[in-house]
Amino acid sequence: MSATGQEATPLLALRGVRVRRGSQVVLEVPALDVWPREVLGIVGPNGAGKSTLLQVMALLLAPEAGEVRFRGAVVDARHNPVPVRRRLAVVFQEPLLFDTTVFENVASGLRLRGVAREALRTRVMAWLARLGIAQLAERPARTLSLGEARRTSLARALVLEPELLLLDEPFSALDYPTRQALLSELPGLLAAARTTTVLVTHDPLEARALATRAVALQAGRIVATGPVDTVLAAAGLGPLAGAVSLPAPAERC
Amino acid sequence: MDVLVAAVVQAVRLLLSGDAEVWQVTLLSLRVSLAATAISLLAGVPLGAWLALARFPGRRLLLAAVHTGMGMPPVVAGLVLTVLLWRTGPLGSLGLLYTPTAIVLAQVVLALPIVTGLSAAAIQQLNPLLRLQILALGATRTQYLWLLAREARLPLLAAAMAGFGAVISEVGAAMMVGGNIQGQTRVLTTAIVLETSKGNFDLALALGLLLLALVYAVNLGLTWVQQRGRPL
Fold first, then answer.
1. Dihedral of the CA atoms A152, A154, A155, A161 (nearest 10)?
2. Domains: count for chain B
3. B175 in any annotated domain
4. B137 and A112 in contact by Cβ < 8 A?
5. What is the pTM of this model?
6. Which of A85, A92, A112 lies nearest to residue B129, judging by beta carbons?
7. Residue B232 in domain
8. What whole-number distance in Å separates Cα of residue B227 and Cα of residue B232?
9. CATH 3.40.50.300 matches A36-59+78-238
10. Which residues of B touch A108 (CB under 8 A)?
C-alpha cells in the first residue's frame, strides 16, 4: 500500500539493505519504500546513517547485502547504474559546484545527457529564473555566496526534471533569512518539477515544512515511520518541531 | 657584466642573422622536448588519475616509486637508456642510439614520473564528494574522468609546465643518448656545454638566453590557458 493509496509499485524500494564500515554495521534497513509524488523526510541525529542511506538510494554506494529496486526493477550500483542514475538527481550538503559559470554548472547534467544546445539553454534559463538566479548566469561559481551556490546546486538538480530528487541537508550552514526563503520556495519548485523527493535532515523544522511522510533513523536503523509529527515525536524531536513558522505542506497545496 | 651585455647582443644578432645552425638546434630542442612532454602527458595524466582513484594493494608503493622517479638524475636515466640502446644491448637492434628519438625517450623517462606524480596529487586534492556529485549527475566512466581532469586543470597544467621545464633544461641524458652530433642531435643545452668547454662564453650565453626565451614563450602559452577567465 502506498502513502497516497494510489500507486501499487513504489518508485524506489530498499529490501534487506546492510552497509558496513570496517567491522561496524552503519546501516540496516529491512524495508523502505519511496512512493511517487511524496516528499519523504529522513530524520535523525548526526551520525545516524542518513547520508549513507541517501547514497544507497542514489546508487552511489553498493550495500553489502540487500537490494535497491527502481520502479520494481533491481538495480546494482556496481554494474552499469548510469541509466537509472540519470533518472535521479542528488543535492549534497555542500553545493559542490564546478569551477565554471553558474550557467555551465546548471547545464552540466544536461550536457552529460547530450541534450541539444537550444533545448538545454531554454531549460537552464527557465530553472535559473525559477530559483531567482538568472542574473547570475555568467558569474563564476567560485564568486557566489553560500545561498547563491545552494540555489545553483538546486537548479542543477531540478533542471534534470528527475523522477526522484534526493536532498541531503540542503539548508545546512545557511543564514536564517536565506534558509527561510528557500524553505518557503522549495515546495513550489518541487511541484513545478513534479518530482518525488527524499529529504535528509536533522532539523525537525525542515521536515515539518517540506515532508509529507517521515522515517526516523538512529544508529543506522529505522526507529519510526509514518506521519511527520508522529515520527518526530517518536524520534524525540517533537518539541522543537512546534517552533516551525511555515505552513504545513498540505495547507499549501 | 660586459660579458652578459655582449651575450644579449650576440643572441639578438644570432636570431636576426638567421644563422641556420642556431635555428636548427633551437627547433630540434623545441621539437624533442614538446614531443617528450606530450607523450608524458598522454601517459602520465591517466596513470596519475588511476593512482589517485584506484584502490589496490601496493598502490602506495607504486606512488612512492613514481615520487622517486620525480627526482631521477638525468645522467642515470641517460646511462640506463644508453645501456639498453647500445648496439649489443637488449634494444640495440632498433638502432636508436644517437638519434633525436633516443633523446625523446630519455626525456620521457624523466618527465613521465613528474607528470604522473603531480597528476595524482592534482586529482587527489579534489573534494571526494565532488567525485560523488559527478557520478550522481549521471556521468559515464569517460565523462567522469574528463570532468575530474577539467576540475583539476590548474594543477594539471602546472604538471605540464613542470614536465616541459625538466626536459628542455636537462643536458646529461641528451648528451649521453644523443651524442651531441652537429646537425643531427645537437640541442640547445648540449650546444651550451660544448661552447662553454671551448671557451666561447658569449655564444654559450647567447644560446642560454635563447633557451630561456624559449622556455618563457612555452610557459607563457600554458599559463595563459591555465589562468583564462581568472582575475588579472
1. 160
2. 1
3. yes
4. yes
5. 0.83
6. A92
7. no
8. 9
9. yes
10. 137, 147
